[in-house]
Design a protein that fits this description.
By secondary structure, the protein is of the alpha/beta class. It has helices spanning 18-22, 37-47, 69-74, 77-90, 102-107, 111-120, 137-153, 178-191, 207-210, 228-238, 252-266, 270-297, 312-324, 341-352, 367-375, 391-396, 420-439; strands at 27-32, 95-100, 125-128, 161-168, 195-197, 216-221, 242-244, 305-310, 329-335, 362-363, 383-386, 400-403. It folds into three domains: 14-153, Nitrogenase molybdenum iron protein domain (Rossmann fold, 3-Layer(aba) Sandwich); 161-270, Nitrogenase molybdenum iron protein domain (Rossmann fold); 299-439, Rossmann fold. The strands form three sheets. A five-stranded parallel sheet has the order 10-9-8-11-12, with helices on both faces. The protein has a four-stranded parallel sheet with strand order 5-4-6-7, sandwiched between helices. Strands 1-2-3 form a three-stranded parallel sheet, with helices on both faces. The radius of gyration is 22 Å and the shape is globular.
Length: 440
């Protein structure tokens, strides 16, 4: 009998997207789920994934219904009502986001009605159906974003600010380096003259920034697929156009091309964009010039073949950078986040566009299968861009490892990112530090 179990899965369940709410400054999620759900999602996605920290309203401070047999048998509406009321009384937040788990969704609790009671009184509370059987935390993330837009931001028919852009990109906390990446994305977009709603992380203005979403001139989806349904929803709701850039930029070549594409779409001053790109490239290549001394000295120990194990967007960005800007040869590419079927051909095309010589991307969720694919590859990688769970096979085949994806339990991450100009330099440092360490 064939097993349908998955070993060492690389994502959380839909309710794990409660951390998307945590990532919005001043926002606290209320978990309408069992007593272990919120804790396990925190331990996996936040703690043992770069030890990122729980933020203002996450971790141990996150309110939870902690559903028991009583709520299963008699329903949890009253318990949820009590929890929302208590949270509003004792916790300070600009917005509370109720995220449902499997129990409340399966037994049919009327969460919409309970939350509606508080909304009718003007309380800043919204809800999203995020039961684990609905999908993973990527799907839950989109559900939460739409819920905030529909239930809190609301309708809008006013003027549009053409110089303002809403950015939809990496999944907070799931991507270990999301905070640094979002800061760099905001920095470089502002560098070409745009005002940026980054929406999540320390660079976000929190709930007040979310309220300006309808006023933006357009939405930017910077991901292979995540955020597309949000952008479609905003187009239907507000008539906002969107630009989809599936390749997250790492390094000078890709970042310059990305900025020119966005500048042309937004009709910003091309001279300002080019001046910013020149300045960034000048600094970027100065660092690389100094790095070249190391590269020339240690050329015999520099890896030539690599494997990438990550979500499709980050896997594509790293493969593109390593292949086209560092001259490394990808021999195995595995996307781990189980992207929706309707997006898979587009993802395959994204990788094919990097180079005709790279292998076809594989969509694999099972950690045991991933390990076997790497171990049995006829062209063994000298370095693996992956997760903590690839450390054993990396040791076995004597490869270096750079943890770039969930879970990353041997990385402590504060503000580091790998996107853009500055992120690429950090990634180069990490790659060749791992190379030296592997040969020690």
């Amino acid at each position: 009998m064939k097993s349908e179990s998955i070993c060492r899965v690389r994502y959380g369940c839909a309710v794990g997207a409660m951390h998307s709410a945590v990532a919005i400054p001043g926002t606290i999620p209320i978990a309408d789920c069992g007593p272990g759900c919120a804790d396990k999602q925190y331990a996996g996605l936040v703690f043992y994934n770069g030890f990122q920290g729980s933020g203002y309203g996450g971790g141990a401070s996150l309110p939870s219904v902690n559903s028991t047999e009583k709520e299963v048998v008699f329903g949890g509406n009253e318990r949820l009502r009590e929890l929302i009321q208590a949270s509003l009384k004792v916790m300070k937040a600009d917005l509370f986001v109720v995220t449902t788990g499997c129990i409340s969704d399966i037994v049919g609790d009327d969460v919409e009605s309970v939350v509606g009671e508080f909304q009718a009184r003007g309380a800043p509370v919204v809800y999203a159906e995020t039961g684990g059987f609905k999908g993973n935390n990527f799907i839950g993330h989109e559900a939460i974003a739409k819920a905030i837009v529909d239930q809190h931001v609301g309708d809008y028919a006013g003027p549009r600010d053409e110089g303002l852009v809403n950015v939809w990109t990496e999944l907070p906390y799931q991507n270990t380096f999301w905070r640094g990446d979002l800061q760099e994305i905001k920095r470089i977009l502002e560098g070409i003259g745009l005002r940026v709603n980054i929406l999540f992380g320390h660079g976000s203005g929190g709930v007040e920034e979310w309220k300006t979403i309808p006023r933006a001139g357009f939405n930017l989806v910077l991901h292979s697929w995540l955020g597309l349904s949000i952008a479609e929803h905003l187009r239907e709701k507000y008539g906002q156009p969107y630009l989809h850039v599936p390749m997250i930029p790492i390094g000078s070549i890709e970042t310059g091309g990305f900025l020119r594409k966005v500048a042309a779409y937004a009709k910003t001053d091309p001279e300002r964009a080019e001046a910013f790109i020149r300045e960034e490239e000048r600094d970027y290549y100065r660092y690389l010039e100094e790095f070249s001394e190391f590269y020339a000295e240690y050329f015999f120990g520099v890896p030539s073949k690599l494997a990438v194990v990550s979500d499709s967007a980050y896997a594509a960005a790293i493969t593109n950078f390593a292949s086209n800007q560092l001259g490394l040869i990808p021999v195995k590419i595995i996307a781990t986040e189980d992207p929706p079927e309707e997006h898979r051909e587009g993802i395959r095309g994204l990788f094919r566009g990097i180079s005709p010589d790279i292998p076809e991307v594989q969509f694999i969720e099972d950690g045991f299968v991933i390990e076997e694919e790497i171990r049995n590859s006829p062209r063994r990688p000298a370095i693996i861009f992956g997760t903590t769970w690839e450390r054993d096979v990396a040791k076995e085949i004597r490869a270096g490892i750079v943890e770039v994806s969930f879970p990353a339990s041997y990385e402590v991450v504060l503000s580091r990112g790998y996107v853009g100009y500055r992120g690429a330099l950090s990634l180069i440092e990490k790659i060749f530090t791992a190379t030296i360490s592997a040969s020690a």
